[in-house]
Amino acid sequence: MTRLVLTRPHTHAGKPCGPGDRIDVDATSADWLIAHGIATPEPAAPATARDTTPEPKPFQRKEPKQ
Question: Comparing C-alpha atoms, which of 14, 25, 52, 63 is closest to residue 5?
Fold first, then answer.
């Protein structure tokens, strides 16, 4: 299922919905609603702190001199 945000009034599953409402539809219906300017894809969720943490640099171990 694809989550969309409505940009215009629309009836979804027999229920009237207004601009800003979020609905879940199949991919074909999502494409149609977007193409006709009725909805836009829901923005991606913000990244969490864990997702934005840079990976640690590899540690290079120095061998003792002989």
Answer: 25
Residue-wise pLDDT tens digits, 12-22: 989 999 999 99
Give dist(CA 48, CA 46) in Å, integer.
Answer: 6
Looking at residue 64, its pLDDT comes to: 77
Direct distance between the N- and C-terminal alpha carbons of the chain, in angstroms, rounded to an integer: 64
To the question of pTM greater than 0.70 for the whole model, the response is: no
**Phi/psi of residue 60, each to 5°?**
-100, 115
E-state strands within 1-66: 2-6, 10-12, 15-17, 22-25, 39-41
Q: What is the sign, positive or negative, of the torsion defined by CA atoms of 30, 36, 39, 41?
A: positive
Residues of the chain with pLDDT under 70: 45-53
